[in-house]
Write a structure and sequence with these properties.
Blueprint lengths: L11 H19 L7 H24 L5
Helix pairs in contact: 1-2
Length: 66
């Protein structure tokens, strides 16, 4: 998932969108409890989701995204 990741100087919204995309890519595995990597994917998706929320917070404080 490092492919097409945002640059180090990307805007918070770009970073958040990348993390959200990662969560979406993991969705087929996280929905399939029989998948051998289900538990690991759930942990990773939760981390990515939290990172997306955290990346959006600075933008929201500065009035961006409105």
């Amino acid at each position: 998932m490092t492919e097409n990741c945002p640059s180090m100087n990307a805007k918070p919204g770009e970073v958040a969108a990348w993390f959200e995309r990662c969560v979406n890519l993991l969705r087929p595995i996280t929905r399939d409890r029989s998948h051998p990597e289900h538990d690991e994917a759930c942990v990773l998706a939760a981390q990515y989701s939290a990172d997306a929320i955290a990346a959006r917070k600075p933008a929201a404080r500065n009035g961006a995204g409105r």
